[in-house]
Each structure stands twice: as C-alpha cells, then as structure tokens.
Amino acid sequence: MKVLLIGGTGLISTAVTQLLLEQGNEVYLLNRGKRGALPQGVIPLTADINDEAKVAELIKDLQFDAVANYIAFVPAHIERDYRLFKGKTRQYVFISSASAYQKPLSDFRVTESTPLANPYWDYSRNKIACEETCMKLYREEGFPITIVRPSHTYGNPYIPLGVHGRHGSWQVVARMLAGKPVIIHGDGTSLWTMTHNSDFAKGFCGLLGNLHAIGESVHITSDESLTWNQVYEAIAAVLGVKLNALHVSSDFLCDCGTYDFLRGSLTGDKAASVVFDNSKLKRLVPGFVATKRFDQGIRETMDYVLSHPECQAPDEEFDRWCDAIVDATRAAAETVKAQLKT
User: Fold this and answer.
1) Is the preceding peptide bond at 157 cis, omega within 30 degrees of 0?
2) Is 268 exposed, middle or buried, given 0-12, 13-18 or 19+ CB atoms closer than 10 A?
3) Rounded to an integer, what distance in angstroms lies between the CA atom of residue 248 and that of residue 329?
4) If 0-12 CB within 10 Å is exposed, 13-18 middle and 19+ buried, where does residue 5 land?
5) Phi, psi for 72 (deg, rounded to 5)
6) Rounded to the nearest 10 degrees, what angle do helices 316-341 and 170-178 cross at?
7) Is the pLDDT of residue 35 over 80?
8) Rounded distance, CA 62 to CA 92, Å?
9) Residue whose C-alpha is closest to residue 219's, from 95, 67, 78
10) What residues have CB less than 8 Å from 214, skipping those under 6 apart?
11) Suppose 206 and one of 10, 238, 277, 285 were both cysteines; which one would form an S-S bond, judging by CB atoms 3.0 to 4.6 Å apart?
12) Which residues neighbour 80 within 8 Å (Cβ) at sequence distance 6 or greater?
C-alpha cells in the first residue's frame, strides 16, 4: 500500500510507521520536519498541514491507498483534509479518542455504539464534532472515512499515569524513588485499560486498506483491565521501591487549581471505570490480539526512561503542588478529628 501519515512522529504514529515499513508498505510522512530524524525508509513531505496551498502542491501528482491524520482536532481540520484528499485516497483515517465516549458511562463496558458525550473536556467534545463532520462527508459526499479511537496508549518514552504535571510523568517517578507520597485519584480501585503502542499499531495497520472499515468507527485497545492501584504498583515494582500512595478525591484535585486540565483528564476520562469490548476490531482485523501485558510494557518503558537522562526533566511546580495536596489532606483529617473530640 501507499500510505500517507500526517504527523507521524508521535507516540502512536511512530509505532504505526515502523510496522507499516516492516510490512513493506510505501510510507509518506507529512510534517514540519522539526522532530528530529525520521525513520529510515519513509518518504518525507515537509510542510505544515495548515499551509493548504503548499500541501496541495506537494501531493498534486500523488495518489494514496490510505491517508491518516494524527493531528486533526477541530472540524475545520477535517474540512481542510477533505479539500486536499478528495479523489486522492481510497481511505481517510481520522484519529479520534476513546475519551469521547459518554461520561459518566451508563455501562462500564464500552462498545462503538456507546454514546459520544463528554461535558467535562473540550478536547473530547472537539473530537466528537470532528467525527460528526467525518460521517457527514461520508454520507453526503462519499468520502471514504474510517474513525479510530485510541484509549490510553503508552510506550517509549511515555509513562502512563493518572495524575501528573504539565511536563509529563517523570516527577511522579522521582517522588517514588524518593519515598515521597504519590497521589492516586479516587481510591485507586476504578478499572482502566492501558494499550502498548506496538499493539495499537497492529490493529491500526489492519484497518488500513480494509474495505470493511470504510464508514466505520473502531476503538483499538488491550483487553487487559487494571486498577489504578495496580498501575502505580507495577511502576514501583520496576523501580524496586515501595509505593507510598495517597488517595485523593478526583473532585478535590480538580478544585485545587494550577492544573485546570485535570477536570477533563480525570472527571472526563480517567476517574471512570472503563472496560473496552474489542469485538468489532477483531471482526475487522481477524487474528488481532494485544500481546504486551502492562507489567511487561511498563518495564520496557521505564528501562528506556531511566537510561535516557533527557527523559528525566524535573518538574518543581508539580512537586510543590503534590506536597501542598499531601499537607492539606493530612491537615483536614487532623482538623476533623480535633473537632470530633470537642
């Protein structure tokens, strides 16, 4: 196949690019060329996708079996891609998000027919609007749409956690190594699904060029369910330390300021128990199975991060915020106990 990936250098797209190349496909990457060396074997197209005229010039003599856009976030991006790729691709893949599913859920078991509604997170609502634009173009214009919904995907160098600062998860790891309290939202018993990017790539590549995937929405996740306590314990085990966990209400964390994005990422996503039904994906991609167990995948990721100092940037703001949450939580407990004694 001849495949164009728009973006193509992020966490999930890097794994997809690698697998497509291993399968012998002709892979074009369209990006601004600012993320370092591209994978060997890809054909680069250097441009900002928002520079529509330049992109149109670059692709004027090209036809694709599939085009996938990893950096479309609002309906205008879909409309632009329609203008660029109408008649130039057999399939257009929009990468949406499993966070678009109904929050709160009416059933913790999520299928592709679960309603899309997330009042807590603008990111998710914009993805929903993009999906609606995609399906309108498919129904009214015959644009060959496939919608893919990743959930919490991880891999080198991304450590998947529920609560972290603006600069990623390293500071949580640093707190673990120092024996400091680590914040886990809620009581840590809600169910969550982690998917290694290599497993995501297997499902994604199986949908490319797949005529049965046209006009369909599909999520790609592991079948493994974990509690957040298990997630944090697995990371502590890799580090060889005892986890010092502090469980804090998601609502309280969201109300404490500094990190406004927590309202979306917790209340609108990670605070809910979610179990994905991957039957549709397995029907479209026979033989698909996610094989990277979390304890295996997180060991690989942690080994990578620990051996790459550039992945270990401190986040003092987040560390101070955590300390303040710890102090406030303990002080509140002491205040209640003191009041009950009077």
Assistant:
1) yes
2) buried
3) 8
4) buried
5) -105, 125
6) 60
7) no
8) 15
9) 95
10) 91, 138, 144, 145, 146
11) 285
12) 49, 50, 52
Instruction: Walk me through the domains of the chain, giving residue ranges and CATH numbers.
Output: 91-334 (3.40.50.720)
pLDDT at 200: 98
The model's pTM:
0.95
Whole-angstrom distance, CA of residue 245 vs CA of residue 300: 23
Looking at residue 209, its amino acid is G
> Which two structure tokens, joined as six digits, stand for 337?
């106990």
- Say if residues 153 and 222 touch (Cβ distance below 8 Å): no
Burial 147-176 (b: 16+ CB within 10 A, else e): bbbbbbbbbbbbbbbbbbbeebbbbbbebb
Could you read off the pLDDT of 206-259 as tens digits, one per residue?
999 999 999 999 999 999 999 999 999 999 999 999 999 999 999 999 999 889
Q: Give the whole-angstrom CA distance, residue 156 versus residue 196.
A: 9
Vertex 59: Cα angle to 57 and 62 (nearest 5): 140
Q: For residue 331, what are the contacts with CB-CB under 8 A and spacing of at least 6?
A: none
Q: Which amino acid is at 86?
A: K
Lookup result for tokens 């949580």: 172
User: Chain-centre distance of CA 155, in angstroms?
Assistant: 11
Mean pLDDT computed over every residue of the chain: 95
Share of the chain above pLDDT 70, in %: 100
Helix (H, G, I), strand (E, B) or coil at 11: helix
88 CB contacts (<8 Å, ≥6 apart)?
A: 59, 62, 63, 64, 67
Burial class (CB in 10 A: 0-12, 13-18, 19+), 14: buried
